[in-house]
Amino acid sequence: MNMQKVYILEDRGILYINGADANEFLQNMISNDINKVNEGNSCFASLLTPQGKFLFAFIVVKHKSGYFIDCEKSQTDALFKQLSIYKLRSKVEIMNLSNEFVIAAFSREKFLKFEGAKDQPGNTIKYREDSILLDPRNKELGARLIINLEKLYLSLKKLELKDSPIAEYYKLSHELGIAQKKMNKLQNKLFGIECNFEELNGIDFQKGCYVGQENTARIKLKNKLSKRLLAIQLISGKLTEGASIYANDIEIGKVLIDDDYPFALVKYLDDNFKEDSELKSENAILTIKKPNWIK
């Protein structure tokens, strides 16, 4: 990621959760430990079904007396509704601030130039009053600035950052094997742990109960993780959502996201699956590679 470039992620939304019970409210629901989140640290987390299936993924950042939820903008309304269902009598206020705040992403190298910045995923500092954090999922995704839209361009000018096409950012994310786009296509189709959320620092196995915790812990403890969400590299043809993927005429996966940055749920431990070998799907030839951050 070029040190002078910035990517204005207009496709990201911001929810704000505030109130006397905000901490407890989030702790009882999300896959990570909300107590990790403070002025100096942010976290990646997910909201799962009671069965442990994936629903939403987001970054949690401390803001004043509450928390920013940085999520895919197309999912903010659905996430808002889901959180509201769990609200019940909790003293919590949930607001959609997507029209007021924006996310800007830039390089890890630029982040480390700031005073007090640490080369640790989730490390969070203040630029004036705004939070800048090193992506808690993977440091190679760079840093994120959460800022009021009205202040954005003046701040980017002062930081000597040049607006660049966001396709470059999502291409990098796809090359790293980290899904961020069209995540609604994954809902209820795989377990959260199969989305690699453990490796992306999004699951805390030491915290208490949360929605979907039982099955997540069982898969981990019984070593039953046999499928993973992995990036597809299309060689030729056209991908079809839901189509099976074959190696030597043996089904080893299924296309879940078939758009510009495609992903599949793959039986990565199957003897027929070989990294970088050509695989076949309904109308496509493709390869799949396990990222180096998955051991």
UniProtKB/TrEMBL annotation:
The keyword Transit peptide applies. Keywords: Transit peptide. The keyword Transit peptide applies. This is Aminomethyltransferase. It comes from Pelagibacter ubique.
